[in-house]
Design brief:
The protein is mainly beta and 612 residues long. The protein has a domain of 104 residues: Immunoglobulin-like, CATH 2.60.40. Helices cover 9% and strands 34% of the residues. The protein contains 6 helices and 50 strands. The strands form 9 sheets. The chain has a 12-stranded parallel β-sheet, with helices on one face. Strands 7, 10, 19, 22, 25, 28, 31, 34, 38, 41 and 43 form an 11-stranded parallel β-sheet that branches. Strands 6-9-21-24-27-30-33-37 form an 8-stranded parallel β-sheet, with no helix packed on it.
Length: 612
Protein backbone atom coordinates (compact mmCIF):
# COMPACT_ATOMS: atom_id res chain seq x y z
CA UNK A 1 0.00 0.00 0.00
CA UNK A 2 1.50 3.31 -1.08
CA UNK A 3 0.81 6.45 0.91
CA UNK A 4 -1.13 8.99 -1.14
CA UNK A 5 -1.39 12.52 0.16
CA UNK A 6 -4.83 14.14 0.29
CA UNK A 7 -3.86 16.80 -2.27
CA UNK A 8 -2.52 14.16 -4.64
CA UNK A 9 -5.76 12.24 -4.44
CA UNK A 10 -7.67 15.23 -5.75
CA UNK A 11 -5.72 15.10 -9.00
CA UNK A 12 -5.03 11.39 -9.43
CA UNK A 13 -8.53 10.13 -8.67
CA UNK A 14 -11.91 11.78 -9.08
CA UNK A 15 -12.32 14.94 -7.02
CA UNK A 16 -16.06 14.34 -6.84
CA UNK A 17 -15.62 10.70 -5.83
CA UNK A 18 -13.19 11.54 -3.07
CA UNK A 19 -15.49 14.28 -1.84
CA UNK A 20 -18.41 11.88 -1.72
CA UNK A 21 -16.36 9.38 0.30
CA UNK A 22 -15.37 12.08 2.80
CA UNK A 23 -19.02 13.09 3.01
CA UNK A 24 -19.85 9.54 4.04
CA UNK A 25 -17.19 9.64 6.73
CA UNK A 26 -17.94 13.10 8.14
CA UNK A 27 -21.53 13.81 7.03
CA UNK A 28 -20.54 17.36 6.08
CA UNK A 29 -22.66 17.61 2.95
CA UNK A 30 -25.27 15.48 1.23
CA UNK A 31 -25.23 14.76 -2.51
CA UNK A 32 -28.26 12.96 -3.85
CA UNK A 33 -27.07 9.63 -5.21
CA UNK A 34 -28.63 8.09 -8.31
CA UNK A 35 -28.23 4.99 -10.43
CA UNK A 36 -28.32 4.68 -14.19
CA UNK A 37 -31.37 3.09 -15.76
CA UNK A 38 -28.84 0.77 -17.42
CA UNK A 39 -27.24 -0.43 -14.19
CA UNK A 40 -28.85 -1.09 -10.83
CA UNK A 41 -26.87 -1.58 -7.63
CA UNK A 42 -28.44 -4.11 -5.28
CA UNK A 43 -26.39 -4.55 -2.16
CA UNK A 44 -23.01 -5.84 -3.27
CA UNK A 45 -24.13 -6.77 -6.79
CA UNK A 46 -24.66 -5.02 -10.11
CA UNK A 47 -27.80 -5.74 -12.10
CA UNK A 48 -27.60 -4.97 -15.82
CA UNK A 49 -30.73 -3.55 -17.42
CA UNK A 50 -31.38 -3.35 -21.15
CA UNK A 51 -32.20 -0.34 -23.27
CA UNK A 52 -34.91 -0.18 -25.92
CA UNK A 53 -32.74 -2.16 -28.35
CA UNK A 54 -32.07 -4.93 -25.86
CA UNK A 55 -28.47 -3.87 -25.27
CA UNK A 56 -26.84 -3.91 -21.84
CA UNK A 57 -23.64 -2.17 -20.79
CA UNK A 58 -20.66 -4.41 -21.51
CA UNK A 59 -18.51 -5.70 -18.67
CA UNK A 60 -15.22 -3.84 -19.06
CA UNK A 61 -13.62 -5.36 -15.97
CA UNK A 62 -11.43 -7.77 -17.93
CA UNK A 63 -9.22 -4.92 -19.17
CA UNK A 64 -5.77 -4.86 -17.64
CA UNK A 65 -2.85 -7.08 -16.76
CA UNK A 66 -3.88 -10.73 -17.08
CA UNK A 67 -7.47 -9.65 -17.54
CA UNK A 68 -7.36 -7.81 -14.19
CA UNK A 69 -7.19 -11.20 -12.46
CA UNK A 70 -3.74 -10.75 -10.94
CA UNK A 71 -1.55 -7.96 -9.65
CA UNK A 72 1.43 -6.85 -11.71
CA UNK A 73 4.44 -8.73 -10.29
CA UNK A 74 7.35 -7.10 -8.52
CA UNK A 75 10.22 -8.25 -10.73
CA UNK A 76 13.62 -8.41 -9.00
CA UNK A 77 16.62 -6.55 -10.40
CA UNK A 78 19.15 -8.96 -11.88
CA UNK A 79 21.43 -6.47 -13.65
CA UNK A 80 22.28 -2.78 -13.14
CA UNK A 81 24.02 -0.39 -15.52
CA UNK A 82 24.89 3.30 -15.60
CA UNK A 83 24.99 5.75 -18.49
CA UNK A 84 28.12 6.00 -20.64
CA UNK A 85 29.30 8.92 -22.76
CA UNK A 86 27.78 9.01 -26.24
CA UNK A 87 25.41 6.45 -27.75
CA UNK A 88 24.03 4.02 -25.17
CA UNK A 89 21.95 1.93 -27.58
CA UNK A 90 24.27 -1.09 -27.67
CA UNK A 91 25.18 -0.65 -24.01
CA UNK A 92 21.53 -0.99 -22.92
CA UNK A 93 20.59 -3.57 -25.57
CA UNK A 94 23.45 -5.87 -24.53
CA UNK A 95 22.21 -5.82 -20.94
CA UNK A 96 18.61 -6.50 -22.06
CA UNK A 97 19.78 -9.41 -24.21
CA UNK A 98 21.74 -10.88 -21.31
CA UNK A 99 18.63 -10.94 -19.16
CA UNK A 100 16.65 -12.35 -22.08
CA UNK A 101 19.05 -15.31 -22.15
CA UNK A 102 18.28 -16.19 -18.54
CA UNK A 103 15.80 -18.98 -17.79
CA UNK A 104 12.19 -18.16 -17.07
CA UNK A 105 11.04 -18.78 -13.51
CA UNK A 106 7.28 -18.49 -13.05
CA UNK A 107 7.14 -16.30 -16.15
CA UNK A 108 9.88 -13.92 -14.93
CA UNK A 109 13.50 -13.46 -15.93
CA UNK A 110 14.33 -10.21 -14.18
CA UNK A 111 14.66 -6.44 -14.35
CA UNK A 112 17.40 -4.28 -15.80
CA UNK A 113 17.90 -1.23 -13.58
CA UNK A 114 19.18 1.99 -15.12
CA UNK A 115 20.79 4.19 -12.51
CA UNK A 116 20.02 7.92 -12.52
CA UNK A 117 21.49 9.72 -15.50
CA UNK A 118 20.94 10.60 -19.15
CA UNK A 119 21.31 7.75 -21.64
CA UNK A 120 21.69 8.93 -25.24
CA UNK A 121 19.92 6.49 -27.57
CA UNK A 122 20.75 6.86 -31.27
CA UNK A 123 18.84 3.77 -32.41
CA UNK A 124 15.90 1.60 -31.27
CA UNK A 125 15.89 -0.49 -28.12
CA UNK A 126 13.88 -3.72 -28.07
CA UNK A 127 12.69 -6.09 -25.35
CA UNK A 128 11.69 -9.17 -27.38
CA UNK A 129 11.69 -11.51 -24.37
CA UNK A 130 9.15 -12.86 -21.93
CA UNK A 131 9.43 -11.72 -18.33
CA UNK A 132 11.90 -8.84 -18.75
CA UNK A 133 11.43 -5.41 -17.19
CA UNK A 134 13.30 -2.19 -17.99
CA UNK A 135 13.29 -0.06 -14.85
CA UNK A 136 14.83 3.31 -14.05
CA UNK A 137 15.94 4.95 -10.86
CA UNK A 138 14.51 8.42 -10.34
CA UNK A 139 16.31 10.60 -12.85
CA UNK A 140 16.95 7.86 -15.42
CA UNK A 141 16.27 9.39 -18.85
CA UNK A 142 16.50 7.83 -22.31
CA UNK A 143 17.24 10.71 -24.67
CA UNK A 144 16.57 9.83 -28.30
CA UNK A 145 19.15 11.56 -30.51
CA UNK A 146 18.98 12.01 -34.27
CA UNK A 147 16.67 10.67 -36.95
CA UNK A 148 18.23 7.39 -38.13
CA UNK A 149 16.23 5.63 -39.30
CA UNK A 150 13.71 8.34 -40.08
CA UNK A 151 10.89 8.62 -37.54
CA UNK A 152 11.89 5.49 -35.61
CA UNK A 153 10.50 4.00 -32.43
CA UNK A 154 12.74 4.63 -29.43
CA UNK A 155 11.68 1.54 -27.48
CA UNK A 156 9.74 -1.56 -28.52
CA UNK A 157 8.41 -3.94 -25.90
CA UNK A 158 7.45 -7.17 -27.66
CA UNK A 159 7.99 -8.84 -30.99
CA UNK A 160 9.52 -7.27 -34.10
CA UNK A 161 6.39 -7.94 -36.16
CA UNK A 162 2.63 -7.78 -35.69
CA UNK A 163 1.24 -11.09 -34.42
CA UNK A 164 -2.51 -11.04 -33.82
CA UNK A 165 -3.80 -14.50 -34.70
CA UNK A 166 -4.26 -14.38 -38.45
CA UNK A 167 -2.60 -17.80 -38.84
CA UNK A 168 -5.39 -20.32 -38.35
CA UNK A 169 -4.42 -23.79 -37.16
CA UNK A 170 -5.62 -26.43 -39.60
CA UNK A 171 -8.83 -28.20 -38.68
CA UNK A 172 -9.76 -25.92 -35.77
CA UNK A 173 -12.48 -23.78 -37.32
CA UNK A 174 -15.94 -24.21 -35.79
CA UNK A 175 -19.07 -22.32 -36.79
CA UNK A 176 -21.04 -20.35 -34.21
CA UNK A 177 -24.57 -21.72 -34.38
CA UNK A 178 -26.30 -19.08 -32.22
CA UNK A 179 -28.63 -16.94 -34.31
CA UNK A 180 -27.56 -13.92 -32.25
CA UNK A 181 -24.85 -13.29 -29.66
CA UNK A 182 -25.46 -9.99 -27.87
CA UNK A 183 -22.83 -7.55 -26.60
CA UNK A 184 -21.70 -8.53 -23.12
CA UNK A 185 -22.26 -12.26 -23.77
CA UNK A 186 -19.52 -14.71 -22.75
CA UNK A 187 -20.99 -17.95 -24.10
CA UNK A 188 -21.04 -19.31 -27.64
CA UNK A 189 -22.65 -22.41 -29.09
CA UNK A 190 -20.58 -24.17 -31.74
CA UNK A 191 -21.32 -26.87 -34.27
CA UNK A 192 -18.70 -29.08 -32.58
CA UNK A 193 -16.72 -28.21 -29.44
CA UNK A 194 -15.37 -31.72 -28.86
CA UNK A 195 -11.72 -30.82 -29.45
CA UNK A 196 -11.78 -27.68 -27.33
CA UNK A 197 -10.67 -27.49 -23.73
CA UNK A 198 -10.32 -24.98 -20.92
CA UNK A 199 -7.38 -22.62 -21.37
CA UNK A 200 -7.23 -22.71 -25.18
CA UNK A 201 -6.73 -19.44 -27.04
CA UNK A 202 -9.28 -18.80 -29.75
CA UNK A 203 -10.10 -16.12 -32.28
CA UNK A 204 -13.74 -15.17 -32.76
CA UNK A 205 -14.12 -14.02 -36.35
CA UNK A 206 -17.11 -12.06 -37.71
CA UNK A 207 -16.62 -11.67 -41.49
CA UNK A 208 -17.17 -8.31 -43.14
CA UNK A 209 -19.91 -9.47 -45.52
CA UNK A 210 -21.98 -7.61 -48.08
CA UNK A 211 -25.06 -8.14 -45.87
CA UNK A 212 -23.37 -6.66 -42.81
CA UNK A 213 -22.03 -3.72 -44.79
CA UNK A 214 -25.52 -2.95 -46.04
CA UNK A 215 -26.84 -3.07 -42.45
CA UNK A 216 -24.28 -0.46 -41.33
CA UNK A 217 -24.72 1.61 -44.51
CA UNK A 218 -21.19 0.88 -45.69
CA UNK A 219 -19.69 2.63 -42.69
CA UNK A 220 -21.82 5.75 -42.95
CA UNK A 221 -19.37 7.49 -45.28
CA UNK A 222 -20.46 9.60 -48.27
CA UNK A 223 -21.43 7.91 -51.47
CA UNK A 224 -19.53 9.11 -54.56
CA UNK A 225 -20.97 12.04 -56.45
CA UNK A 226 -21.35 11.07 -60.14
CA UNK A 227 -21.08 14.73 -61.14
CA UNK A 228 -17.69 15.10 -59.43
CA UNK A 229 -14.92 13.03 -61.07
CA UNK A 230 -12.58 13.78 -58.14
CA UNK A 231 -15.04 12.54 -55.51
CA UNK A 232 -13.73 9.14 -54.41
CA UNK A 233 -15.92 6.26 -53.30
CA UNK A 234 -14.99 5.81 -49.63
CA UNK A 235 -17.68 3.29 -48.74
CA UNK A 236 -16.40 0.30 -46.81
CA UNK A 237 -15.95 -2.83 -48.90
CA UNK A 238 -16.37 -6.57 -48.38
CA UNK A 239 -13.60 -8.00 -46.20
CA UNK A 240 -12.27 -4.60 -45.13
CA UNK A 241 -13.35 -4.63 -41.48
CA UNK A 242 -13.83 -8.11 -40.03
CA UNK A 243 -14.63 -8.08 -36.30
CA UNK A 244 -12.04 -10.06 -34.35
CA UNK A 245 -11.83 -11.02 -30.66
CA UNK A 246 -8.94 -12.78 -28.95
CA UNK A 247 -10.26 -14.91 -26.07
CA UNK A 248 -9.47 -17.86 -23.81
CA UNK A 249 -11.91 -20.67 -23.06
CA UNK A 250 -12.86 -20.97 -19.38
CA UNK A 251 -15.51 -23.69 -19.65
CA UNK A 252 -16.73 -26.29 -22.13
CA UNK A 253 -20.20 -27.75 -21.69
CA UNK A 254 -21.23 -29.92 -24.61
CA UNK A 255 -21.04 -27.64 -27.64
CA UNK A 256 -21.26 -24.47 -25.54
CA UNK A 257 -18.08 -22.67 -24.55
CA UNK A 258 -17.59 -19.88 -22.02
CA UNK A 259 -15.10 -17.10 -22.70
CA UNK A 260 -12.81 -15.23 -20.34
CA UNK A 261 -14.22 -11.89 -21.54
CA UNK A 262 -17.38 -10.86 -23.40
CA UNK A 263 -17.86 -9.87 -26.99
CA UNK A 264 -18.57 -6.17 -27.50
CA UNK A 265 -20.77 -6.27 -30.59
CA UNK A 266 -23.76 -8.32 -31.74
CA UNK A 267 -22.90 -11.37 -33.83
CA UNK A 268 -25.94 -11.79 -36.09
CA UNK A 269 -25.96 -15.01 -38.07
CA UNK A 270 -28.32 -13.47 -40.63
CA UNK A 271 -25.68 -10.85 -41.53
CA UNK A 272 -22.48 -12.87 -41.19
CA UNK A 273 -21.68 -16.45 -40.28
CA UNK A 274 -19.21 -16.00 -37.44
CA UNK A 275 -16.81 -18.73 -36.40
CA UNK A 276 -13.97 -19.49 -34.03
CA UNK A 277 -10.56 -21.01 -34.61
CA UNK A 278 -7.34 -21.69 -32.73
CA UNK A 279 -4.61 -19.22 -33.78
CA UNK A 280 -0.90 -19.79 -34.13
CA UNK A 281 0.48 -17.12 -31.79
CA UNK A 282 4.12 -18.21 -32.09
CA UNK A 283 6.42 -15.27 -31.37
CA UNK A 284 4.06 -13.44 -29.02
CA UNK A 285 5.78 -12.01 -25.93
CA UNK A 286 4.31 -12.40 -22.45
CA UNK A 287 4.80 -10.58 -19.16
CA UNK A 288 7.28 -7.76 -19.85
CA UNK A 289 7.15 -4.07 -19.04
CA UNK A 290 8.77 -0.75 -18.21
CA UNK A 291 8.82 1.13 -14.92
CA UNK A 292 9.87 4.63 -13.91
CA UNK A 293 11.46 5.40 -17.28
CA UNK A 294 11.51 8.83 -18.92
CA UNK A 295 11.94 9.04 -22.71
CA UNK A 296 12.81 12.46 -24.15
CA UNK A 297 13.05 12.89 -27.91
CA UNK A 298 15.46 15.49 -29.22
CA UNK A 299 14.09 17.79 -31.91
CA UNK A 300 14.11 21.39 -33.09
CA UNK A 301 10.63 21.86 -31.66
CA UNK A 302 7.74 23.52 -33.48
CA UNK A 303 6.89 21.60 -36.66
CA UNK A 304 10.16 19.67 -36.90
CA UNK A 305 9.48 16.08 -38.01
CA UNK A 306 13.02 14.80 -38.42
CA UNK A 307 13.27 13.00 -35.11
CA UNK A 308 12.25 9.79 -33.37
CA UNK A 309 8.51 9.31 -33.75
CA UNK A 310 7.11 6.99 -31.07
CA UNK A 311 8.51 6.89 -27.56
CA UNK A 312 7.41 3.32 -26.80
CA UNK A 313 5.49 0.71 -28.78
CA UNK A 314 3.98 -2.37 -27.13
CA UNK A 315 3.67 -4.81 -30.01
CA UNK A 316 2.58 -8.46 -30.21
CA UNK A 317 2.57 -8.78 -26.46
CA UNK A 318 0.20 -9.90 -23.73
CA UNK A 319 0.15 -9.22 -19.97
CA UNK A 320 2.49 -6.25 -20.29
CA UNK A 321 2.73 -3.03 -18.31
CA UNK A 322 4.13 0.48 -18.05
CA UNK A 323 4.15 2.17 -14.64
CA UNK A 324 5.14 5.75 -13.74
CA UNK A 325 6.75 6.48 -17.11
CA UNK A 326 7.00 9.82 -18.92
CA UNK A 327 7.25 10.42 -22.68
CA UNK A 328 8.14 13.79 -24.20
CA UNK A 329 8.56 15.28 -27.66
CA UNK A 330 7.29 12.36 -29.80
CA UNK A 331 5.82 12.94 -33.26
CA UNK A 332 3.04 10.39 -33.28
CA UNK A 333 2.60 8.60 -29.95
CA UNK A 334 4.02 8.65 -26.48
CA UNK A 335 2.70 5.12 -25.95
CA UNK A 336 1.18 3.04 -28.73
CA UNK A 337 -0.23 -0.48 -28.44
CA UNK A 338 -0.29 -2.80 -31.45
CA UNK A 339 -1.54 -6.40 -31.23
CA UNK A 340 -1.26 -5.82 -27.49
CA UNK A 341 -3.71 -7.47 -25.10
CA UNK A 342 -4.59 -7.63 -21.41
CA UNK A 343 -2.05 -5.04 -20.34
CA UNK A 344 -1.97 -2.16 -17.86
CA UNK A 345 -0.51 1.34 -18.26
CA UNK A 346 -0.55 3.08 -14.91
CA UNK A 347 0.25 6.70 -14.02
CA UNK A 348 2.06 7.41 -17.28
CA UNK A 349 2.49 10.84 -18.88
CA UNK A 350 2.64 11.67 -22.59
CA UNK A 351 3.59 15.30 -23.07
CA UNK A 352 4.01 17.94 -25.76
CA UNK A 353 4.36 16.16 -29.11
CA UNK A 354 6.46 17.86 -31.79
CA UNK A 355 5.48 18.00 -35.46
CA UNK A 356 2.88 19.28 -37.87
CA UNK A 357 -0.63 19.28 -36.43
CA UNK A 358 -2.33 16.99 -38.94
CA UNK A 359 -3.27 13.35 -39.49
CA UNK A 360 -1.20 10.44 -38.12
CA UNK A 361 0.43 12.73 -35.57
CA UNK A 362 0.12 13.70 -31.93
CA UNK A 363 -1.79 10.67 -30.63
CA UNK A 364 -0.41 10.75 -27.08
CA UNK A 365 -1.95 7.45 -25.89
CA UNK A 366 -2.85 5.36 -28.92
CA UNK A 367 -4.57 1.96 -29.03
CA UNK A 368 -3.65 0.86 -32.53
CA UNK A 369 -4.52 -2.26 -34.55
CA UNK A 370 -5.64 -5.40 -32.68
CA UNK A 371 -5.31 -3.82 -29.25
CA UNK A 372 -7.73 -5.54 -26.88
CA UNK A 373 -8.58 -5.44 -23.17
CA UNK A 374 -5.96 -2.86 -22.17
CA UNK A 375 -6.30 -0.55 -19.18
CA UNK A 376 -4.93 3.00 -19.04
CA UNK A 377 -5.32 4.21 -15.47
CA UNK A 378 -4.53 7.61 -13.92
CA UNK A 379 -2.59 8.75 -16.99
CA UNK A 380 -1.95 12.35 -18.05
CA UNK A 381 -1.69 13.64 -21.61
CA UNK A 382 -0.87 17.16 -22.72
CA UNK A 383 -0.84 19.00 -26.01
CA UNK A 384 -1.86 16.23 -28.40
CA UNK A 385 -4.32 16.32 -31.26
CA UNK A 386 -5.96 13.22 -29.84
CA UNK A 387 -4.64 12.71 -26.32
CA UNK A 388 -6.49 9.39 -25.85
CA UNK A 389 -7.51 7.62 -29.04
CA UNK A 390 -8.36 4.32 -30.63
CA UNK A 391 -6.58 4.41 -33.98
CA UNK A 392 -7.29 0.73 -34.43
CA UNK A 393 -10.24 -0.58 -36.38
CA UNK A 394 -12.68 -3.49 -36.01
CA UNK A 395 -10.03 -5.71 -34.39
CA UNK A 396 -9.58 -3.23 -31.54
CA UNK A 397 -11.93 -3.49 -28.58
CA UNK A 398 -12.39 -3.53 -24.82
CA UNK A 399 -9.86 -0.81 -23.99
CA UNK A 400 -10.44 1.37 -20.91
CA UNK A 401 -9.26 4.89 -20.01
CA UNK A 402 -9.80 5.19 -16.25
CA UNK A 403 -9.35 8.43 -14.25
CA UNK A 404 -7.23 9.92 -17.05
CA UNK A 405 -6.66 13.64 -17.60
CA UNK A 406 -6.49 15.30 -21.01
CA UNK A 407 -4.78 18.67 -20.87
CA UNK A 408 -4.80 21.22 -23.72
CA UNK A 409 -6.06 18.79 -26.37
CA UNK A 410 -6.03 20.21 -29.89
CA UNK A 411 -8.71 17.81 -31.14
CA UNK A 412 -11.03 15.05 -29.96
CA UNK A 413 -10.42 12.13 -27.60
CA UNK A 414 -12.27 9.47 -29.53
CA UNK A 415 -12.69 6.26 -31.37
CA UNK A 416 -11.00 7.26 -34.61
CA UNK A 417 -11.95 4.91 -37.43
CA UNK A 418 -13.35 1.64 -38.69
CA UNK A 419 -15.73 0.23 -36.04
CA UNK A 420 -13.70 0.12 -32.83
CA UNK A 421 -15.89 -1.56 -30.20
CA UNK A 422 -16.25 -1.44 -26.45
CA UNK A 423 -14.28 1.65 -25.53
CA UNK A 424 -14.76 2.99 -22.02
CA UNK A 425 -13.84 6.49 -20.91
CA UNK A 426 -14.41 6.26 -17.15
CA UNK A 427 -14.07 9.51 -15.17
CA UNK A 428 -12.15 11.09 -18.05
CA UNK A 429 -11.49 14.79 -17.50
CA UNK A 430 -10.53 17.56 -19.93
CA UNK A 431 -8.63 20.62 -18.68
CA UNK A 432 -7.34 23.81 -20.36
CA UNK A 433 -9.51 23.12 -23.38
CA UNK A 434 -8.54 24.79 -26.64
CA UNK A 435 -11.88 23.94 -28.31
CA UNK A 436 -15.34 22.89 -27.09
CA UNK A 437 -15.51 19.49 -28.86
CA UNK A 438 -12.94 17.25 -27.16
CA UNK A 439 -14.69 13.92 -26.46
CA UNK A 440 -16.65 11.79 -28.90
CA UNK A 441 -18.14 8.44 -29.87
CA UNK A 442 -19.40 9.20 -33.34
CA UNK A 443 -19.16 8.80 -37.12
CA UNK A 444 -16.16 10.59 -38.60
CA UNK A 445 -17.68 10.24 -42.08
CA UNK A 446 -15.03 11.14 -44.70
CA UNK A 447 -12.49 12.47 -42.21
CA UNK A 448 -9.19 10.74 -42.79
CA UNK A 449 -9.98 8.26 -45.55
CA UNK A 450 -13.50 7.01 -45.04
CA UNK A 451 -13.09 6.62 -41.28
CA UNK A 452 -16.85 6.32 -40.84
CA UNK A 453 -18.22 4.77 -37.67
CA UNK A 454 -15.32 5.08 -35.28
CA UNK A 455 -16.76 3.72 -32.02
CA UNK A 456 -19.68 1.39 -31.27
CA UNK A 457 -21.07 -0.14 -28.07
CA UNK A 458 -18.83 2.29 -26.21
CA UNK A 459 -19.40 4.21 -22.99
CA UNK A 460 -18.59 7.59 -21.51
CA UNK A 461 -19.13 7.23 -17.76
CA UNK A 462 -18.93 10.18 -15.36
CA UNK A 463 -16.73 12.16 -17.74
CA UNK A 464 -16.18 15.92 -17.44
CA UNK A 465 -15.51 18.31 -20.32
CA UNK A 466 -16.95 21.35 -18.53
CA UNK A 467 -20.66 21.91 -18.16
CA UNK A 468 -20.37 25.56 -19.19
CA UNK A 469 -18.12 25.04 -22.22
CA UNK A 470 -17.41 21.51 -23.48
CA UNK A 471 -19.14 19.44 -26.15
CA UNK A 472 -19.49 15.68 -26.30
CA UNK A 473 -20.28 14.10 -29.66
CA UNK A 474 -22.44 11.02 -29.21
CA UNK A 475 -24.21 9.11 -31.97
CA UNK A 476 -26.15 5.89 -32.31
CA UNK A 477 -24.62 3.59 -34.95
CA UNK A 478 -26.85 1.29 -36.99
CA UNK A 479 -27.10 -2.15 -35.25
CA UNK A 480 -25.40 -0.73 -32.11
CA UNK A 481 -25.43 2.03 -29.49
CA UNK A 482 -23.11 4.46 -27.67
CA UNK A 483 -23.66 5.83 -24.16
CA UNK A 484 -22.93 8.98 -22.15
CA UNK A 485 -23.98 8.51 -18.53
CA UNK A 486 -23.45 11.05 -15.75
CA UNK A 487 -21.24 13.27 -17.92
CA UNK A 488 -20.67 16.98 -17.47
CA UNK A 489 -20.82 18.98 -20.68
CA UNK A 490 -22.51 22.09 -22.02
CA UNK A 491 -23.72 20.06 -25.00
CA UNK A 492 -24.10 16.36 -25.78
CA UNK A 493 -25.05 16.26 -29.41
CA UNK A 494 -25.53 13.99 -32.40
CA UNK A 495 -24.08 16.71 -34.60
CA UNK A 496 -20.71 17.60 -33.09
CA UNK A 497 -19.37 18.76 -36.47
CA UNK A 498 -21.25 19.82 -39.58
CA UNK A 499 -20.16 16.79 -41.60
CA UNK A 500 -21.37 14.30 -38.98
CA UNK A 501 -25.10 14.49 -38.22
CA UNK A 502 -26.62 11.24 -36.94
CA UNK A 503 -29.11 10.07 -34.31
CA UNK A 504 -28.14 11.03 -30.79
CA UNK A 505 -26.88 8.12 -28.69
CA UNK A 506 -28.04 7.18 -25.20
CA UNK A 507 -27.72 10.16 -22.83
CA UNK A 508 -28.56 10.01 -19.13
CA UNK A 509 -27.88 12.32 -16.21
CA UNK A 510 -26.13 15.14 -18.05
CA UNK A 511 -24.59 17.55 -15.49
CA UNK A 512 -26.12 15.59 -12.64
CA UNK A 513 -23.82 14.85 -9.71
CA UNK A 514 -23.98 11.78 -7.51
CA UNK A 515 -23.85 8.94 -10.06
CA UNK A 516 -23.28 5.61 -8.36
CA UNK A 517 -21.18 3.70 -8.88
CA UNK A 518 -18.72 6.54 -9.40
CA UNK A 519 -16.50 4.29 -11.53
CA UNK A 520 -18.09 1.75 -13.84
CA UNK A 521 -14.86 -0.21 -14.33
CA UNK A 522 -14.04 -0.49 -10.62
CA UNK A 523 -17.61 -1.41 -9.72
CA UNK A 524 -17.66 -4.11 -12.41
CA UNK A 525 -14.30 -5.41 -11.24
CA UNK A 526 -15.49 -5.51 -7.64
CA UNK A 527 -18.73 -7.22 -8.67
CA UNK A 528 -16.91 -9.85 -10.72
CA UNK A 529 -14.39 -10.61 -8.00
CA UNK A 530 -16.91 -10.89 -5.20
CA UNK A 531 -18.92 -13.35 -7.27
CA UNK A 532 -15.85 -15.53 -7.78
CA UNK A 533 -14.91 -18.05 -5.13
CA UNK A 534 -11.89 -16.65 -3.29
CA UNK A 535 -9.73 -18.31 -0.65
CA UNK A 536 -8.78 -15.35 1.50
CA UNK A 537 -5.89 -17.32 2.98
CA UNK A 538 -4.26 -17.11 -0.44
CA UNK A 539 -4.64 -13.34 -0.89
CA UNK A 540 -1.48 -11.64 -2.05
CA UNK A 541 -1.61 -9.08 0.75
CA UNK A 542 -1.90 -9.63 4.48
CA UNK A 543 -5.47 -10.03 5.69
CA UNK A 544 -4.90 -7.88 8.75
CA UNK A 545 -4.29 -4.15 8.90
CA UNK A 546 -2.81 -2.83 12.14
CA UNK A 547 -3.08 0.78 13.12
CA UNK A 548 0.60 1.02 14.00
CA UNK A 549 1.49 -0.21 10.49
CA UNK A 550 -0.81 2.41 9.00
CA UNK A 551 0.81 5.09 11.15
CA UNK A 552 4.28 4.00 10.12
CA UNK A 553 3.35 4.14 6.42
CA UNK A 554 1.72 7.54 6.89
CA UNK A 555 4.92 8.76 8.60
CA UNK A 556 3.05 10.59 11.33
CA UNK A 557 3.27 10.61 15.10
CA UNK A 558 -0.06 12.16 16.04
CA UNK A 559 -3.32 10.78 17.30
CA UNK A 560 -5.53 9.01 14.78
CA UNK A 561 -9.02 10.40 15.20
CA UNK A 562 -10.71 7.84 12.99
CA UNK A 563 -9.94 5.02 10.60
CA UNK A 564 -12.55 4.23 7.95
CA UNK A 565 -12.54 1.54 5.27
CA UNK A 566 -14.70 2.55 2.29
CA UNK A 567 -15.63 0.34 -0.66
CA UNK A 568 -15.32 1.69 -4.20
CA UNK A 569 -19.06 2.38 -4.45
CA UNK A 570 -18.90 4.59 -1.34
CA UNK A 571 -20.20 2.09 1.23
CA UNK A 572 -18.49 2.35 4.63
CA UNK A 573 -17.21 -1.09 5.58
CA UNK A 574 -16.15 -0.17 9.10
CA UNK A 575 -14.91 2.71 11.22
CA UNK A 576 -12.80 2.83 14.35
CA UNK A 577 -12.78 6.04 16.44
CA UNK A 578 -9.53 7.03 18.19
CA UNK A 579 -7.95 3.58 17.76
CA UNK A 580 -5.16 2.49 20.05
CA UNK A 581 -1.74 1.72 18.61
CA UNK A 582 -1.70 -1.97 17.77
CA UNK A 583 -5.46 -2.27 17.48
CA UNK A 584 -6.39 -4.69 14.70
CA UNK A 585 -8.94 -4.26 11.94
CA UNK A 586 -9.60 -7.57 10.19
CA UNK A 587 -10.02 -7.66 6.41
CA UNK A 588 -10.43 -11.42 6.29
CA UNK A 589 -14.18 -11.32 5.69
CA UNK A 590 -14.17 -8.62 3.01
CA UNK A 591 -15.13 -9.62 -0.53
CA UNK A 592 -12.28 -9.36 -3.00
CA UNK A 593 -12.19 -5.88 -4.47
CA UNK A 594 -10.76 -2.38 -4.08
CA UNK A 595 -11.10 -0.36 -0.89
CA UNK A 596 -9.95 3.00 0.39
CA UNK A 597 -8.63 3.37 3.91
CA UNK A 598 -9.12 6.85 5.36
CA UNK A 599 -6.81 7.65 8.25
CA UNK A 600 -8.19 10.83 9.78
CA UNK A 601 -5.55 12.65 11.79
CA UNK A 602 -6.01 15.66 14.02
CA UNK A 603 -6.12 18.16 11.17
CA UNK A 604 -5.81 16.17 7.95
CA UNK A 605 -6.74 13.04 6.05
CA UNK A 606 -4.42 10.40 4.62
CA UNK A 607 -5.78 7.96 2.07
CA UNK A 608 -4.54 4.50 1.18
CA UNK A 609 -5.80 2.27 -1.61
CA UNK A 610 -6.00 -1.47 -0.92
CA UNK A 611 -6.54 -4.04 -3.67
CA UNK A 612 -7.61 -7.46 -2.43
Amino acid sequence: MNHIAFSDMLSSISRQWLTSCIVLCFCCHQVSAWHSAMLDVQGESLVYLSDNDGFVLPDFSHAGYKGADEQIPEVPVVRTISAIVGDNTNHIQTAIDAIGAMPLQNGIRGALLLTAGVYEVHGTLTVPFDGVVLRGEDGAVLRAIGDMPHQRDVLVIGANKRIWGANEKDGTRQLITDNMVMPGCRTLTLNDAQRLSVGKQIIIYHPCTAEWLQAVNYGGVPYPDPSDPDNADERWTTGQYPIIYHRYITEVNGNTITLDAPVFYTLRKSLAQSYIYEPDMTGTIYGSGIENITIEIESLGGEDENHAWNAVRFRSIENAWAIDCTFKGFGQSGLVTEACRRSTFLRCKALDPVGITTGERKYNFNTYLYSQLNLFSECYARGGRHNYISNGTSGTSGNVFLFCVSDSALNVNEGHRGWTQGMLYDNHRDTNMTRPFTLGLYNRVAMGTGHGWAAVQSVLWNCDVGETYGTIGLQKPPTAQNYAIGCKAKRITGKPVSSSDFTLGYVEGQNRSGLEPQSLYLAQLNDRRQNTAVNHADNIIEDLLTINTALRQAKVNVQVERLAIVAVEGRIVCTVDRPAVGEVVSLAQLPTGMYFVYIVLENSVSVKKILL
